[in-house]
Amino acid sequence: MPNIVLKNSMTFDISFRYSMRLKSGEFVRQYWPLLVAFLGRNFHKLFNFSLIVWVVCTASVMADYSTQTAHHNSQINSETIDESLSSLELIRSQSPEVVSNQLLILSPKFDVMNQEQQYRFTLLQSHSYALSGDFEGATDPLITLLSKPFSEENLKYRIRMMILLTNIYSHFAYYVDTLKMLHQLLPLLPDVEDIEAEVHGYTLAAGIFGKLELHEEALKYSRELFSKIDKMKSPRHQCFTSYSYADSVYAAYGDDEARFLQIQTLYGDLYRYCAIANEKMIMSSSLLGQAKILFYLKDFNNARKKIDEAITLSTEIPYLLDIARAYILLSEIERAENNNKLALIYINNALEAALKVKEEEVILLVYKSLSEINEKLGMTDKALVHLKLHQQYSEKILDRNHSAVIAFETTKLDYLEKEHQIRYLNKDRELYTAKAELTESQRNNERMMLLLICGSLVVLTLFAINMTLQKRKYMRLAEFDLLTGIFNRGTGQDLAENRYIKDSMSGIDFSVILFDLDDFKRVNNNYGHAMGDWVLKKVCEVVNKECRSSDIFTRFGGEEFALFMPNTSESVAREVAEKCKARILAIDTRYSGHEFTIRARFGISTSTEKDLSLDSILQRADIAMYQSKQQARERVSVYTPE
């Protein structure tokens, strides 16, 4: 057997290969003592090596376990925050107090939220501050974030922040800021792939243009959004979209009776969409919209039912603005049924709610109703107080709306100017060198200045035309009776007096026909004031057919009318009065929903040489009309001295 010594690995390897040629028993007998000797000399080295390997492996396993645990906990925490934010987003307009309280609980976790979660949290928080009336708390975080860049995947949150900021500016009547932000927002909406941003953006635009009474503009945006309602999967989106469209259609066509059925259907669909989404605030508004149409159709019982449902929903939220509107509508119903005392109770409830929310348009309506109801109840002092308050709020709102329109025109011009500047700069960078840039810039500045001047002239011209039309409109309102469309007493009597003075100098006859309606108070009491209004308009319509172009048909007040007839003898005036009497008697009232007969009593007087003014002729005509009242109904009496 060779003398083998285990000094190194090579020696061990040679010995091992050599030993493989031996039998197993011989191997054990020959090499076991050598193996034992080797282990004995190197035991402490092997032990230290094993210990190091165990420590390193254990540490690696523990570190890996800690990393996995931290990652798992982070995932759980992030998912919890996502779930909390999603649940709050669903109820932000339904339960504002719950949202506010939950945000306070979530706020300590803001620093551990990812970027998207921070955006969502800020949107909810700003919305909550806005509802509580904290303007700075609502706007400052949004302005700060909008000044920073957004990543591609988070661009939709930039749009949502712009929408919310615009809404807050509008709510707090910062019209210039509102319209500037809106001009930035609207061009972005068609390209954003976020249905929620589109819904809120176009709904907001429709609402702002509606406030400015630009109803056609508001309807344009709400109609565009409504065309996509069948593609929307979220009931909330369908609810908001349907609300915007129904409200815009009502604002634009609410006075058109032919549209009542369409508007009623839209409000009914709106209620169903919002009931699925549990949006009680908008459900209440839809019920009030239906109630208004029912009120115009004189279906008072069903209108009351809708209003009661709306008050119940608004009280649950609570939403005082709709509560105030509901009580105003209840008061109008009671007034239509001549229940003025109950109407006074309802309108006082409306005033209490409106003063709490400080909604000036609603307060204006309340004071107007209070003045009219108190006057009906004989409380003149209170009526005057409320009339003055109504005038104060009316002036305030008129000034505010005027400022809003000016802001709209100003920001619109600014927007167009900036748009032209951007186009010019882009073209300049692409096409021209530095020297050509300067030259083209000067030329474009001159063009823009000319365009601005021309645009300003156009705007001023349009403004002047609009002011002229408004002036004519107000002059017409001042000269004519709003209900019947004929001259009011002041205007009609002045025109007649001037014509009489001119005719009397030429010795031309001038006749006056006075007439009033029999038992008109009975019509109002039995069928309501709306029916009385219908009768007055119908009477004026038929009498107008007997009037010549030179005649001056005037409403003297209530159910009393005067027909001033230049160059007309007493006999001709009597013929005209007889024809008018016959036409009035022939009015078919079945189309109004009730059957009754309309009668009138006439008094006629013609000028004499002794008359120095129209007053004496009117006095004689009044005496003649009184004689008709004493003698018989439907009578035409010519003044005869007693």
TrEMBL record:
<dbReference type="InterPro" id="IPR000160">
    <property type="entry name" value="GGDEF_dom"/>
</dbReference>
<protein>
    <recommendedName>
        <fullName>diguanylate cyclase</fullName>
        <ecNumber>2.7.7.65</ecNumber>
    </recommendedName>
</protein>
<dbReference type="InterPro" id="IPR011990">
    <property type="entry name" value="TPR-like_helical_dom_sf"/>
</dbReference>
<feature type="domain" description="GGDEF">
    <location>
        <begin position="508"/>
        <end position="641"/>
    </location>
</feature>
<keyword id="KW-0812">Transmembrane</keyword>
<dbReference type="InterPro" id="IPR050469">
    <property type="entry name" value="Diguanylate_Cyclase"/>
</dbReference>
<keyword id="KW-0472">Membrane</keyword>
<dbReference type="Pfam" id="PF00990">
    <property type="entry name" value="GGDEF"/>
</dbReference>
<dbReference type="InterPro" id="IPR029787">
    <property type="entry name" value="Nucleotide_cyclase"/>
</dbReference>
<feature type="transmembrane region" description="Helical">
    <location>
        <begin position="448"/>
        <end position="469"/>
    </location>
</feature>
<keyword id="KW-1133">Transmembrane helix</keyword>
<dbReference type="InterPro" id="IPR043128">
    <property type="entry name" value="Rev_trsase/Diguanyl_cyclase"/>
</dbReference>
